[in-house]
Amino acid sequence: MKKIVLAALGLMAAVALTGPIDTAHAGKPLTLRIGHPMAPGNNVTLGLEKFKELVEAKSDKKIKIQIFGSAQLGSDRVTTEAAQAGTLDMSSCSSPNMASFGKAYMALDLPYITSPKYQQNLYKALDEGELGQELERISNEIGLTTIMYS
């Protein structure tokens, strides 16, 4: 939850720094689109719905999030490539598909990388530790920024 709140605040700060895109849209909410392949009720879908709720609330509805699930805009690889190209604002991508962008992401899918009793340690390493910092560096090299892990 902390990661989602920080991501929403970070997104708002980044948008605030850019200022209005043009004067014709001044005063209108900024709408950001995110595409993902998951079905309604999936943990990714639920996380993105919470993200939308937090961003819109914290921005006083100056930022709107449109969620396109169930692969409406394409697979996670297609939407991630679109985010890289700047034709889509955000994408949700599985770690196996992220491995095609950066081989370091393969580590997240190693069998038995952690047992359930250590799962929180892995999430902490992704959210606050060197593991997350390294994956963020790799993401930045390929034109992406990580907002959250699910």
TrEMBL record:
Q: Name one GO biological process term.
A: transmembrane transport
Question: What Pfam families does the record tag this protein with?
Answer: DctP (PF03480)
The reply on keyword Transferase is: no
Using the record, list the residue span of the signal peptide; answer none if the entry has no such feature: 1-18
Keyword Transport listed: yes
Tell me which domain of life the UniProt entry assigns to the organism this sequence originates from: Bacteria
Q: What keywords are annotated for this sequence in UniProt?
A: Signal, Transport
Coiled-coil ranges from the UniProt annotation: none
The entry sums up its family as follows: Belongs to the bacterial solute-binding protein 7 family.
PANTHER family registered for this protein in UniProt: C4-DICARBOXYLATE-BINDING PROTEIN DCTB, PTHR33376
UniProt name for this protein = Extracellular solute-binding protein, family 7
Give the species: Desulfomicrobium norvegicum (strain DSM 1741 / NCIMB 8310)
